[in-house]
Write a structure and sequence with these properties.
Two copies of one chain form a homodimer. Chain A is an alpha+beta fold and 239 residues long. The first copy, chain A, has two domains: 69 residues, Arc Repressor Mutant, subunit A, CATH 1.10.10.10; 152 residues, Chorismate lyase (3-Layer(aba) Sandwich), CATH 3.40.1410.10. In chain A, helix 1 packs across helix 3 and helix 2 packs across helix 3. The two termini of chain A are 39 Å apart. Chain A contains eight helices and ten strands. Strand 7 of chain A pairs antiparallel with strand 10 of chain B. Chain A binds a DNA duplex (19 and 19 nucleotides) through helix 3.
DNA sequence: TAGTGGTCTAGACCACTCA
DNA sequence: GAGTGGTCTAGACCACTAC
C-alpha cells in the first residue's frame, strides 16, 4: 500500500502550508535538494511541485526558486462553488438538508435533452433543500441515469451521494462542467425556498461525466441571490 | 526560435481537435507511437497529452488509450467568463467599448483595502462600459497600482490593456483570483448601464498577481443579470 | 559565476484493459 | 499475453536570477 512519491511530497507540503507551519514567502528547498532529501529523482519532485503550483500553494520562479503563497488571502476553497457545508461551517450556523423527493421517473423533454438520453428513459430524481439559520436558501435538483445508478434512497440523499457513487458503486468520475447564470425564479423555487422578495435566482448547472465520457448526472443548484458566491483561481497560461 | 517540442505537439492536436479534423471518440496514437513519430521521448509526449487532458481536449484511460472529447457539447470557452468580445462574436451583434474615464487618483479606503496598499496611494482608474446591440450591459472598473503601471490612456483602454501590460511593459502575470457574487445595483450602475428594471447586478471581482506575488490590479466587472454567463470545466482530482 | 527552475532523454517497472 | 497509460530514474543542457 505504498503511496506515490510525488503525492507524498505534495501532501506533506500542502498540509504544512495549509496549517500555517510554512509561512507565506518561505522559500522551499531547491528541486535538487528535495530530490536528495526524499531520495528520489528531480523529475518526481517537479511533479509534486507542479501540483502545488497549479493548486495555488506555491509560486515557481525560474532562476530564483519556489515560494509559499499566502492562501489565507484567498479565502478557501481556492476554486469552485462555496459548498453548502462550507458555508454553514464558516457561519458556524445550524444547517440542515431536507430531502424533498427521491423518485425514479421517466425523463421529460427538457431533462432528456440535458442528459442526452431518449425521452422517457427512467431517471432518478433527487430534490433537496438546504437550510442555514432556519432559512432555505439552496435548492438542489439532481438527476441520475438509472442504467448507471440503479438505486437511490432518501437515506443516501441525506448523506453524501458522491461517496455512494464512487465508493459503493465504483463509478469513475472524470470531469464536470458547470454553467452559471441568473434566471427568473419559478413557482417551485418559491414553494421550496425562503426566497423573500427576490424575483431572480442563481442557477448552477452541473454536468458530470464518467471516465468513458458518458454523461450520467445532471444537477441544477438554485441559489438565492444574496447567498451566492463562487471563487475561481487560475494560473496564467503561456501559449 | 525553436518551440518546445511538447508545446508543438499540444498545439498541433488542440488545433486539429478544435477545427474538427479529429472527431470526438477518435483514439490518438499511443504514447510510444507519438514519441517515435515526433522523434522524441515518451515523457515529452506525456507532457503534451497531459496539457490536452487538463484543458478538456482529450480523455486518458489507463490500459486503453487517449480519446478525443466532444468539445462542441461544451460550448466554448471551456472555462472562464464569457468575455465581452466572445459574447458579441457569438451573437454576431454590433458591439462597442465606451471608455468613460481614465484617471490617476489617490486610492480611497475601500480600494486601498482591495489592492492591499496604503490609503491615498495613486492608482490608475479605468472605467469602461460594454455595449452590445445598442445596450450597455457590462461595466468594467479597472484599478492598477501606479508604481507598477506608470502610464495609461484612453487609447490603450480602448484596445487591449493586457497586451499593453504584458508586451509593452513586460509584466509577468502569474495568477488571478475571481470572486463572483450578486449585489444590489448602485446609482453608478444605473447611470452608466442600461439596467432596465433589474435591482441587482452580478459582480465579478478579479485580483491579478504578478510573478513576484505582488497584487497589482483589481477589477470589478459588473454584468446585467440577464446577460451573465460563466463556464467552469474541472477534471476530477484524485487524492 | 553559482544556483535555480524548464526541457528533454532513454531507458525501467508497474497496473490496467481487452481479446 | 500484448498493448496501454502511470510512475520513476539518473543523467543532460539550457535560460534565467542574483551576486
Amino acid at each position: 500500500m505504498r503511496e506515490n512519491i510525488y503525492l507524498q511530497i505534495y501532501n506533506e507540503y500542502s498540509n504544512q502550508i495549509h496549517s500555517g507551519q510554512l509561512l507565506p514567502g518561505t522559500k522551499l528547498p531547491s528541486e535538487s535538494e528535495l530530490a536528495e532529501a526524499y531520495n528520489t529523482s528531480r523529475e518526481t519532485v517537479r511533479k509534486a511541485l507542479n501540483l502545488l503550483f497549479r493548486e495555488g500553494y506555491i509560486n515557481k520562479i525560474k532562476g530564483r526558486g519556489s515560494f509559499v503563497l499566502d492562501m489565507t488571502r484567498m479565502d478557501f476553497p481556492v476554486t469552485g462553488l462555496i459548498s453548502f457545508k462550507e458555508m454553514a461551517d464558516t457561519l458556524g450556523a445550524p444547517s440542515r438538508t431536507l430531502v424533498e423527493e427521491t423518485v425514479l421517473e421517466p425523463a421529460g423533454a427538457a431533462l432528456a435533452r440535458q442528459l442526452q438520453i431518449p425521452l422517457d428513459t427512467p431517471v432518478w430524481k433527487v430534490i433537496r433543500a438546504r437550510e442555514i439559520e432556519e432559512e432555505r436558501i439552496i435548492l438542489d435538483k439532481d438527476f441520475f441515469r438509472s442504467d448507471i445508478v440503479p438505486f437511490l434512497s432518501a437515506e443516501i440523499a441525506e448523506g453524501s451521494i458522491y461517496e455512494y457513487l464512487e465508493v459503493k458503486l465504483g463509478l469513475k468520475i472524470s470531469y464536470a462542467k458547470k454553467l452559471i447564470s441568473v434566471e427568473p425564479s419559478t413557482e417551485e423555487d418559491h414553494r421550496l425556498l425562503d426566497l423573500k422578495k427576490y424575483t431572480h435566482i442563481v442557477v448552477v448547472r452541473n454536468y458530470v461525466y464518467l471516465e468513458n465520457t458518458v454523461l450520467f448526472q445532471y444537477t441544477e443548484s438554485r441559489h438565492r441571490l444574496d447567498k451566492f458566491q463562487f471563487v475561481d483561481f487560475a494560473r496564467r497560461v503561456r501559449r
